[in-house]
From TrEMBL:
It comes from the Bacteria. Residues 1-23, 66-85 are annotated as: Disordered. Residues 22-80 form the Peptidoglycan binding-like domain. This is Peptidoglycan-binding protein. Pfam families: PG_binding_1. It comes from Streptomyces vinaceus. InterPro entries: Peptidoglycan-bd-like, PGBD-like_sf, PGBDSf. Gene3D superfamilies: PGBD-like superfamily/PGBD.
């Protein structure tokens, strides 16, 4: 399944990601969460329940507001990218 359409504030090449999405953007999300110790499973590029929970945990730990829980939208992306490379 392709990534969900980007929100109006997100650049077209930075889609909002949520459960059931897959692809290289999901691998990048998993890689960045792994840098913070929040993802220890294989980076297979599937946005499953485990990744949803990891994103929710990241959002709670770092006080991310503006995206629904478990959704990797513009606010979550900005915060995660500010902490990782």
């Amino acid at each position: 399944m392709p990534p969900s359409p980007a929100s109006p504030t997100a650049p077209a090449d930075e889609p909002t990601l949520r459960r059931h999405d897959s692809g290289p953007q999901v691998v990048d999300l998993q890689r960045r969460l792994a840098q913070l110790g929040l993802w220890t499973l294989p980076q297979r590029g599937r946005f499953d329940q485990h990744l949803d929970e990891a994103v929710q945990w990241f959002q709670a730990k770092y006080g991310v507001r503006g995206d629904p829980p478990g959704v990797y939208g513009p606010a979550t992306r900005r915060r995660l990218e500010s902490l990782t490379s």
